[in-house]
Structure prediction request, 178 residues.
Amino acid sequence: MEFTDLLEKRHSIRKYDASKKVTKDQIDTVIKAAIQAPSWKNSQTARYYAIMSQDKIDEFCSKCLPERNAKNANGAALIVCTFVSDVSGFSADKVADNECGNGWGFYDMGLHNANLILKATELGLGTLVMGIRDGDSIRNMLSIPDTETIGPVIAIGYPDAEPSRPIRKNIDDILTTI
Ligand SMILES: Cc1cc2nc3c(=O)[nH]c(=O)nc-3n(C[C@H](O)[C@H](O)[C@H](O)COP(=O)(O)O)c2cc1C
Prediction:
C-alpha cells in the first residue's frame, strides 16, 4: 500500500470482529516494523507484551482497563507497551542528558508504536492506542519489572466497522516557518 494511502486508511478502531483472531505471525510482523524505528543512540528501549489467549485478555480487561476501553477492545488481542527507564536520554552512568529525562523513552516508544500501527493497517488489521489504563494493575498482572515504564495498551484485531476520521488541524495551525 502507498504510504499516503496507509496514513489515510489508519483510524482508531473501536469495534472488532471477534470471530477472526490475530495470529502470532501477525504480531511478530508488527513488532518487527516497530523495531525499524529510530531511537536515542539506537538504544531500542521499547518492550512489548502481547496478550493473545482469550482467558488472559478477559482477565486483563477486567483488571487493567476502564469499562469503556475494555468494551471497545472486545474481540482484539492486546499489546502492552513499555520502555526500559533511564536509558534513552541518559548517559551510561544514568545521568539525564537534558531536561526531557525519560520523555525520550516515551518519544522512542511512540516512534516504535507509529510503525506498529501503520504496519497493522497494511496487514488489514485495526488498532486502538489506549492511554487510559491502570498501570499498577498491569505491572502486577504481567509481572513487569520496575526497571520498565508502562505506556499504552494497543488493541489489535480485525475491524468490524469503518469509522470516519476525526478532523485534523491545518498545516498553518501547527507549523511555524522561520
Ligand atoms: C497516546 C494516546 C492515548 C489514547 N488513549 C485512548 C484511550 O484510552 N481510549 C480511546 O478510545 N482512544 C484513545 N486514543 C485514540 C485517540 O482518541 C485517537 O487517536 C484520536 O481521536 C484520533 O483518531 P484516529 O486515531 O482515528 O485518527 C489514544 C491515542 C493516543 C495516541
